[in-house]
Amino acid sequence: MPLRIASTLLFAALLLACLLLPQAHAKDATHALRDASVISKVLERGTLRVGFSTFVPWAMTDKTGEYIGFEVDVMTQLAQDLGVRMEFVPTSWSGIIPALLSDKFDVIIGGMSVTTERNMKVNFTIPYDTTGMALVASKTTAAGFDSLDDFNSQDVIIVARIGSTPATAAKQFFPKATLRLFDKETQCMQELLSGRVHAFVASAPLPAHSAAEHPDKLFMPVQGTFTSEPVAFAVRKGDPDTLNVLDNWIRQKEAQGWLAERKHYWFETVEWAARLK
């Protein structure tokens, strides 16, 4: 073969290799990203691990010890649609994001509001619900209070759950008041019922339900909510495949009316109350 022809063929082969090599690397990177995604691992494992903390009526324990609530219905349906088993991992709310980042579970539920501070640590799906903060007060210590301004005073004590958006809202709306933080909502409620504090800030509908449950001790000085916050699933960063699956699952359930139907049952009725301990 003449030297000139051989050189031409060699150059063409090198050029073709240079063109195909980046495509091969891109294909390998795509496969590696897919295989490393949480959703791939969930399907391979056959189990969806969900981190949550109890919030009424998002996630609660019934008389038999089973978890019930809006979020429990959401994640159970998601697992069923994925064709995998559900594993609930109860976790302290204040440590729930670090637990997700250390792979204790695959996704966070629990009425987690989307905030910039949280979004710096985790990725959120599109919102599947909207919640808001409300305030329930003691008839003894907050007698005569009928506006949010009444609670923004140095002699007022407010309780909220540590690490929660209600705690953030309490700091924002009542900067002059003393804020006491507890790990569980039941602890906050005990402080309020005992008359040691003036009010409890929490996500709706817990304040209204509590006032209805204890009409002799509690009341709603301001009806409804005083904030509006999107609620979403939280997953670890760098996982577009998992976000895509969850986002589209939410879109499907919204279009079917399933999310609205479940929210109506848990937030606008108390039919479930008899199932609790």
UniProtKB/TrEMBL annotation:
<dbReference type="InterPro" id="IPR001638">
    <property type="entry name" value="Solute-binding_3/MltF_N"/>
</dbReference>
<feature type="domain" description="Solute-binding protein family 3/N-terminal">
    <location>
        <begin position="47"/>
        <end position="262"/>
    </location>
</feature>
<dbReference type="GO" id="GO:0030313">
    <property type="term" value="C:cell envelope"/>
</dbReference>
<dbReference type="GO" id="GO:0015276">
    <property type="term" value="F:ligand-gated monoatomic ion channel activity"/>
</dbReference>
<feature type="domain" description="Ionotropic glutamate receptor C-terminal">
    <location>
        <begin position="49"/>
        <end position="269"/>
    </location>
</feature>
<keyword id="KW-0732">Signal</keyword>
<protein>
    <submittedName>
        <fullName>Amino acid ABC transporter substrate-binding protein</fullName>
    </submittedName>
</protein>
<dbReference type="Pfam" id="PF00497">
    <property type="entry name" value="SBP_bac_3"/>
</dbReference>
<dbReference type="GO" id="GO:0016020">
    <property type="term" value="C:membrane"/>
</dbReference>
<comment type="similarity">
    <text>Belongs to the bacterial solute-binding protein 3 family.</text>
</comment>
<feature type="signal peptide">
    <location>
        <begin position="1"/>
        <end position="26"/>
    </location>
</feature>
<dbReference type="InterPro" id="IPR001320">
    <property type="entry name" value="Iontro_rcpt_C"/>
</dbReference>
<dbReference type="InterPro" id="IPR018313">
    <property type="entry name" value="SBP_3_CS"/>
</dbReference>
